[in-house]
Design the sequence.
């Protein structure tokens, strides 16, 4: 009986981190309603991908690529596909993974029980947090309010453009190179 108790305590201790929130894992990109992905985003469909770079890097990338001069970098960024004008807006999003680690509490309980100490336990569960960053992009035009919706006529061409933009962002380290590419 004692072996079973010791084994179950050990198994519980190794699995004592209880996840409270798990951020989504996106391989390339995901199309989702903004409000469904994270509260506070618009209700439009959004092109969402994981951002492996530092905060503000996408801002610098867009500012350099579209030569915006730090003016209206987050909203109404113009681009063209097949001679038609489109606009996009982007949002930098942080969704943390949160879990609670009960190992310090369990360790102190076991330690006090082993030494027959009847002190109050001062250990508290530890909240662990790992930040995950995403870029969410919405696209619209003068003739379509949501170019990524399933009914949008331009959805495929816009998705191709955004996929190329994403790949260019993730592979470019020096944004001054963009001036020479365009």
Sequence:
């Amino acid at each position: 009986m004692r072996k079973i108790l010791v084994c179950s305590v050990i198994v519980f201790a190794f699995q004592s981190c209880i996840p409270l929130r798990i951020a989504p894992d996106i391989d390339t990109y995901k199309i989702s309603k903004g409000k469904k992905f994270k509260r506070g985003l618009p209700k439009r469909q959004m092109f969402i991908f994981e951002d492996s770079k530092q905060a503000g890097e996408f801002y610098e990338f867009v500012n350099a690529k579209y030569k915006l001069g730090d003016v209206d970098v987050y909203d109404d960024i113009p681009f063209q596909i097949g001679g038609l004008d489109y606009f996009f807006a982007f949002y930098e999003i942080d969704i943390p993974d949160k879990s609670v680690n009960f190992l310090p509490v369990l360790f102190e309980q076991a330690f006090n029980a082993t030494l027959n100490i009847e002190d109050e336990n001062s250990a508290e569960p530890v909240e662990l947090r790992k930040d995950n960053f995403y870029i969410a992009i919405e696209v619209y035009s003068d003739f379509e309010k949501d170019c990524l919706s399933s009914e949008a006529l331009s959805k495929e061409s816009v998705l191709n453009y955004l996929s190329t933009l994403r790949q260019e962002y993730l592979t470019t380290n020096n944004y001054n190179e963009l001036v020479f590419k365009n």
In short: The chain has six helices and six strands. The chain has one domain: 21-98+130-181. The CA atoms of residues 101 and 126 lie 5 Å apart.
